[in-house]
Amino acid sequence: MTAKKYFPIALFIGLQAAVLQAIDQAICAGIVPLFAGGGWISFQAWAVYFMGGCTVKNGVRAMIGYVIGMVASIAIIFCGGQLGALGFWAMPLVLLVLVPIILYLDIAPEMINFVPAVFVGAGVFFGIMSYIPGATFGNAFISEGIYALIGLVFGWLTITFRGWYEAKYVNK
């Protein structure tokens, strides 16, 4: 594909990024009652859509992975708190037990076995709980879920536009 023919694709993705930023700024301005500054979650989820294979089915698998990751994070944080008397070793011990269990998703039925999305979802949840003042399990779960869904939809839009454009203007 030539640079000239690729330009509309690049411009469309740039437009999507601008819209995503505007959505995040609207949320940060309090127009939508979520925690502020979660646009980075949408950008990660957008990439997870591509990592998952760029299909609606795999987008759904990614969202399921995000949810499983958030639930796993809650379990890890809760169990770590219960073992707080162990001090430094509380969280490593919890991870030693729970991560192998989570990894069994690798051999689970197809719709719940997208382990990379589970780890991204868990990592984002830990980030929110660690660095967003006033974060609770509830508002972190809802906010991450909404931002992840937005990012997955943007991934779908990217692929849908690109497929349409290439079929109509490039691969004729």
Automatic annotation (TrEMBL):
Instruction: Keywords in alphabetical order, please.
Output: Membrane, Transmembrane, Transmembrane helix
Q: Does the keyword Transmembrane apply?
A: yes
Q: Which InterPro entries match?
A: DUF1097
Q: Which residues cross the membrane?
A: 38-56, 63-83, 89-107, 114-133, 145-165
Question: Is Transmembrane helix among the key words of this record?
Answer: yes
Q: What is this protein called?
A: DUF1097 domain-containing protein
Q: What lineage is on file?
A: Bacteria, Bacillati, Bacillota, Clostridia, Eubacteriales
